[in-house]
What we know:
Layout: E1 6-11, H1 17-31, H2 35-43, E2 50-56, E3 59-67, E4 85-91, H3 100-114, E5 119-124, H4 128-133, E6 137-144, E7 147-155, E8 177-180
Parallel strand pairs: 1-8
Antiparallel strand pairs: 1-2, 2-3, 3-4, 5-7, 6-7
Keywords: Transferase
GO cellular component, one term: cytoplasm
Protein name: GNAT family N-acetyltransferase
Amino acid sequence: MNKTDELDFHIIxxxxxxxxxxxxxxxxxxxxxxxxxxxxxxSHLDDELFHGLLAINGEPVATGGIHRKVSVFAIDxxxxxxxxxxxxxxxxxxxxxxxxxxxxCAQLEQEALKRKIEKLHLFTHTAESFYRNQHWQLTKRIFYxxxxxxxxxxxxxxxxxxxxxxxxxHTSVDVCSVQQQSHVK
Length: 185
């Protein structure tokens, strides 16, 4: 990623079927989640919950959202007491290892703050160290089949992430400019 790259963060609306279809295709390829399930899930988010898309120079490269229902509930129903989950964070393979995931997570957290959400949870069995580096704390470990699943929590506030990649005006502190756009290709 270059300093001249333009980053756009966009909240996907229920009428943007082309973006929902794109995100659904990524999830189907990565996690075998059926496209219809993803389409329904993203299309039915409310005013608090959302799903975002990050683009570089107009090209969609990453996605994720804040959701209430996540698949780990099927393994441990006690986790349903937590309201807000950072979920389905995905970066296209050719863009991984370039800081895009951190930028996406910072944008999702900032959007959550705008909606007065101050505490998030997530679960992962592949990216625990990534989230630790983003100041997430381990709250529970679940051993399921051959997976060691970390359940993590983060209290977010405006002062906590002063060293983050983007500020509340979507201006980069370190790398580039992130702008909220109404249209992504």
